[in-house]
Write a structure and sequence with these properties.
Strand order of the largest sheet: 5-4-7-6-8
Helix content: 25-40%
CATH class of the largest domain: Alpha Beta
Shape: globular
Largest sheet: 5 strands, mixed
CATH superfamily of the largest domain: Succinyl-CoA synthetase domains
CATH architecture of the largest domain: 3-Layer(aba) Sandwich
Radius of gyration: 16 Å
Distance between the termini: 40 Å
Structural class: alpha/beta
Strand content: 25-35%
Number of domains: 2
Length: 163
């Protein structure tokens, strides 16, 4: 590429993720989406997910995932998804933040009348958490409502602050 990308999408097997992330960090990329589970059967301590989280956090890199299904930001015309995603997703005031991939897909795929500021599958939240997505959405003038499907709060203080 002639210039450093703003965001890299890492859609490879877990054993390749760390090397690709290292390259992206070396280039100064500031955001990544990781679809892989980042689990290796014969992994040393610290485990791959912990190494990735530490490297990305140290580099100031925002990470969607790992083990996520991606995100949609219709106002930017951006769809980063590991599965078939809806075309013609409407811009609107809903920020939909889901830890469940099925829940993430359900709302945008089942009612095309709904308009979104953001729809995101957070995955493991190695770096970027539900609280971070909430904070971002609350700073978007078009956001009118935030919908959450959460199984655990990984950053309780940040979550309370975003509320």
């Amino acid at each position: 590429l002639p210039e450093v990308p703003d965001h890299v999408v890492i859609g490879v097997a877990s054993r390749f993720v760390e090397a690709i992330l290292d390259q992206a960090i070396g280039l100064g990329v500031k955001a990544a989406t990781i679809f892989a589970a980042c689990y290796l059967d014969d992994d040393d301590s610290p485990h791959l997910s912990a190494r990735i989280a530490a490297k990305a956090a140290e580099a100031g890199m925002a990470v969607c995932g790992a083990n996520c299904m991606g995100f949609y930001t219709p106002s930017a015309g951006l769809r980063v998804a590991s599965a078939v995603s809806p075309s013609g997703l409407q811009k609107g005031g809903i920020a939909w933040i889901a830890q469940s991939g099925s829940a993430f897909s359900a709302l945008p795929n089942n009612d095309r009348r709904l308009g979104f500021t953001l729809a995101v599958s957070t995955g493991m939240e190695l770096v970027t958490t539900v609280a971070d997505y909430m904070d971002w959405a609350l700073h978007q003038p078009e956001t009118r409502v935030i919908g959450l499907f959460v199984e655990t709060i990984r950053d309780p203080a940040g979550f309370l602050q975003a509320l």
